[in-house]
Write a structure and sequence with these properties.
YEATS; Sas5/TAF14; 264 residues; 5-stranded antiparallel beta sheet; 4-stranded antiparallel beta sheet; YEAST_sf; alpha+beta; Immunoglobulin-like; disordered C terminus
Length: 264
């Protein structure tokens, strides 16, 4: 599954309160923190993708490690001093931990901090939760942007022919293809290197347009998949079909020279 990125918003409220302070000149304050997820429109949504939040507070607190399991994982505390803490968010369905550093300060009564997090190779159950806050590729369900890219590419490149052509390449040519993908992929590109089975997987629809064009041209120059045909009659008057490969039409599909590809 592809990695999925999201923005986490940490909202802090604080205010001075009556009561004695252990340090002169530093009044006691009450403060609370809530954790929210942002959807693709920038709206706050409950972070149901996380099963718990652990706040690691200053060692001077009696309870300096506090665990909350109900979104938005609100913590309420009192104290006189500012300090840095870290908050560990544990994703649902064994999706891993995200550790966020947070600056508790008393400069404003309310302030926000945003952190981008990445859910790496999330399981289908976690992907379903992630889709509540925005698009995520899962089991053929694509984001609007991905669908637009697919529609646009279908008009310029026959992706099925490209996939078939890639499977017909020689081992050396496939190594070049893997290098091309690694050198030109973006953060949206989904790849999986299955070392155990000796396989390299790539979702062609997540490749940038420039890389799709490179793969198309290279595959066309190495295989006979993309052939044009002309029909004429033989001396006996029977129709004959003659293939003309794209490498015979350099003005349409320029031949990619081998030296243009990086070596491993």
């Amino acid at each position: 599954m592809p990695d999925v990125k999201r923005w986490v918003k940490i909202i802090t409220h604080q205010k001075p309160i009556d009561g004695p302070s252990p340090v002169e000149g530093f009044p006691m304050r009450s403060w609370n923190i809530e954790i929210w997820l942002l959807d693709d429109q920038g709206n706050e949504v409950l972070p149901t993708v996380y099963e718990k939040a652990v706040y690691n507070l200053h060692p001077s607190f009696d309870k300096n490690k506090q665990v909350f399991k109900k979104p938005p994982f609100r913590i309420d505390e009192q104290g006189w001093g500012e300090f840095d803490m870290n908050i560990v968010l544990t994703a649902a369905h064994k999706g891993g931990d995200h550790t966020l550093n947070h600056d508790l300060n008393f400069q404003s009564e309310r302030y926000e901090a945003k952190h981008q997090v990445t859910f790496r190779n999330p399981k289908p159950e976690l992907l379903a939760l992630l889709q509540d806050s925005g698009s995520a590729d899962a089991n053929g369900v694509r984001s609007k942007d991905a669908s637009k890219k697919k529609s646009r590419r279908d008009k310029a490149v026959d992706m099925e022919k490209l996939a078939d052509g890639l499977q017909k390449l020689s081992e050396d040519d496939l190594l070049h293809v893997v290098t091309m993908v690694h050198d030109n992929k973006t953060s949206e590109t989904y790849t999986k290197n299955d070392v155990e089975n000796g396989e390299f997987h790539v979702d062609l629809y997540t490749l940038p347009d420039s890389l799709v064009k490179m793969l198309w041209d290279f595959t066309a120059s190495k295989t006979d998949l993309f052939a044009r045909f002309s029909i004429h009659e033989d001396p006996d008057g029977q129709p004959v079909t003659t293939p003309h490969y794209l490498k015979d039409f350099p003005e349409v599909t320029p031949m990619l020279k081998r030296e243009n590809f990086p070596d491993f």
